[in-house]
Amino acid sequence: MKESVGTTGLILNESLLWEKGKKGRCGFSLPRRDVESFPLHQELTGEGPDFPDLSEIDVVRHYTRLSQWNFGVDTGMYPLGSCTMKYSPKTNEKQASLPGFAGAHPLLPATLSQGALKMMFELEQYLAEITGMDATTLQPAAGAHGELTGILLIYAFHKKKGAQRSKIIVPDTAHGTNPASVALCGYRPVLVRSNEQGILSVEAVAEVMDEDTAGIMVTNPNTLGLFEENSQKIAEIVHAKGGLVYCDGANMNAVMGIVQMGKIGVDVMHLNLHKTFSTPHGGGGPGSGPVCVKSELEPFLPVPRVIKENGRYVLAEDYPESVGKVAAFHGSFGVMIKAYSYIRTMGPKNLKKASQLAVLNANYIKERLKGILHLAYDRPCMHECVFSDEHQKAGKVTTLDMAKRLMDYGFHPPTVYFPLVVNGAIMVEPTETESKEEIDQFIEAFKAVVNEARQDPDRLHDAPKRCKVKRLDEVAAARKPCLAG
Amino acid sequence: MLYLPHTGEDIASMLQVVGVDDLDGLFSTVPEDCRCKGDLNLPEQLSEWELNDHMEALSHSMAVSPEYRVFAGAGSYEHFIPASVSYLLGRSEFVTSYTPYQPEMSQGTLQAIYEYQTLAARLLGMEITTASHYDGATALAESLLMAIRVTRRRKVATSSLIHPVYRQVVKTYFEPTGYEVVELGYLKNGVTDLAELDDMDDLAAVAVQSPNFFGCIENLQAVGEKAHDKEALFIASFTEALAYGLLKNPGSQGADIACGEGQSLGIPRSFGGPALGMLASIKKFMRSLPGRLVGQTKDLDGKRGFVLTLATREQHIRREKATSNICTNNSLCALAAAMYMASVGGTGIRELARLNHDKAEYLKKELKKAGFTITFDSPTFNEFVVEFPDGFEATYKRLLEKKIVPGISLAPYYPELANHYLLCVTETMSRDDMDILVREIKS
Amino acid sequence: MKEISELNLPDDIRYAEDHEWARLEGDKLRVGLDDYAQDQLGDIVFVELPQVGDTFKQGEEFATVESVKAVCECYLPVGGQIIAVNTALEESPELVNKSPYGDGWFVEVNPSDLSEMDALMTNEACLEKLKGAE
After folding, report:
1. What is the DSSP annotation of A180-220?
2. Which single residue of A21, B299, B344, B362 has CA 20 to 30 Å from B315?
3. B83-340 — its CATH code?
């Protein structure tokens, strides 16, 4: 085995911001005062916030050191299942920071914001084409926000028909955001179990679908990394009872150019631009969660909508059936630019290739690790595969232990303990941007960890050893929460 | 392809391990009739250099400073952002990491967000702040829903001087819930009419924005007292976080929840997003808060470290019973805000806020001198409402041609305020800029 | 986690399906969470209790227990009015782990119908059920 990339560099200590300040310093160039001072009534003014005063270099060193305690896709492979941690091209960052975009006020007259509107108009069309849908809104700021928007559209659809319904079907493999989004819209999620193959059966859906059910919410490919093979028949059943089909597109990276969801019965779906379309995740956002719909739901989309009139782009508010607004302005515009740039530099052929290679990488890992790790469903997978700690349990080594030990080898662990339908799940999503060499090294590292689990389990229990900190006491954090200093 | 590292040889050897003949063979579980026929109808790929030209051209059509003088605020403010903040924010380790689910590998993000939570809490005078929300509007909607959960009441009162688009977002969130929103009107001096509260009962919350949409500073103390008399929560909303560098903060005036937009704290306007939803509360409501929280703890050696905590409130554990469906938030924007707050510091933010106030007062004075009416006489921070004479639309168009955007027209939001414009001045406007504006309006 | 043989299931109390226990003390009932449930949940970080004076029917949710990564709802094994809650759990939720039948009790109930006790299991029945589920 090649020497692992995991090692310990010089990790510097760094205190909290307010432990290093000194009154009188400033890390900000105060603008010239070219107007007289106007007193404001004392009753209105406060003390001012108790911020530390720091010089510019204090701030720069602080955050540079902090950044070195972090691991990102640019540091190494980040096979976090269901999160699609692919490489984020640097040119996309550059485009988003162009002064014309970064400095633009959201309420500029349309005549003065043609470039932004054209970009949004085109991105909407591209996403509709990729999903096989008819129209798109870019307003939702993240995946769960897209789900909320999508369910609001379903709500508006049934309301207009004059017969509101009370339930929505959600499979047991769903992300927690699905039932939570459903509940926010006043619907009750109805759980349906996946079958022994890890997918939804037509019968299971038929059994619960009725005329009080507003629709079904399916992640496809699902969180086990499997394609929902019965999706067309399930859509027929749901449609026959007057329901709508929502597709959670979190895993769209597996099927770009391969499956157009709109053509297989999906009425509404969201995409995560920060997953499939390469925009960086920023340590937890900002994301962007556009929602694509079939024409029957288009009248309900949020406003304003970007439309083209006589060759000019305008923002139109006049859609009386619209659900309204889900964000203050146009959504995560800066994120959209990055996704737009990605689509333009990839082109149709490379988008399809990306999905093919994402699926190739996942299947390759599945084949090469299934001898040593228990594979939950031994079937061809899409962009991710799910193992478990079944084989390691007897030696008192858990999924968590293996995940922590992988860090010492220089890899971010896979998603662990999700999906819930697999006990001790280890969900690996390599994405297409990892090379064969990188993946081989990950496989070798995982094999070494499994070996250690047999021979020296304590090495895993004590892991990680090479990070800034050792395992953290999450129990103490939750019992006596300290949320501000 | 630049971002796809596989060679033909790699693909062949990997396919062999998987046991299929070609890339299409990987999709055997996708039924034939589900597959796309033909290629996606998208434009052919651009080189990096072609993309540069294309985006450059698009961005050039946008009206931004320094070419344009944009006197528009209304929830999106132009403030100087130090190069050090943009530079640090670009660090790959921050930008390309995921939500810090594995704390040992994410201490950078976690400590930075803990510091954000602390500085934001100090700015707002509150005990705790969440890790971030999408924007000020969704933070308000989530705050109102939280108040409904906490009080188990079904009705909220919101000021009509909360940003109109925020109120629209609240309406959209509330539509399927059956909860009721009642709006409080406004008085002649441009502040919320609190007397309307006297006849209202069973309120979960009273929400008021300060400075409000007209730029006027509200008497938050009075709102708090009225709300608490009715055993309702007092929610202080805001669109201009910088104001609290100078004004009394919401916490000191009795706010139970403070929520709003943090874009002013080092985040570019970027056509309205991504932004920073800030949501803070008193400690008592800690377990009812929506969204992520970072907490301090110790590692096995007793060293200080940080983790995501109180996760049992969240969707990935409590599913349909969660306090919100939020997952991905706007973490990097919170990081920008922390860097910005650290850079300006306690001394700097006060002077900066004063400068915003004083510049706006200067423009107010000059406009008055030129014969225009400042509609509301309540004190303001960096925005205010001006009434222009009939026929101002033509002047507005002429100014646009001169590359000046003289504020936002209020008529679409408040039909009774035809010819009224909301003008904003921040530290980025020089005295010359303002003098030019006044001269051009007059001419 | 404990093997079934390691579980402590005293014989002076009755057990509900969802692992709440009830002990008759004079004419009132003391209620808590059993050893199996506390062990499955792991380190308990928070217990949300009802208010004194609240009334619940048998089987109604009256409390929630949280570990770091799980939430468990608790159902009142016998209906009645809450006459006392264990306020010590606010500061020290770990009492539920340390002493599930002693200092880690949840509430005291004034039962509305004591015959509801008959629906609960003895320690032996509870043990049999756990073995059967293995």
Report:
1. HHHHHTTPEEEEE---TTSS--HHHHHHH--TTEEEEEEES
2. B299
3. 3.40.640.10
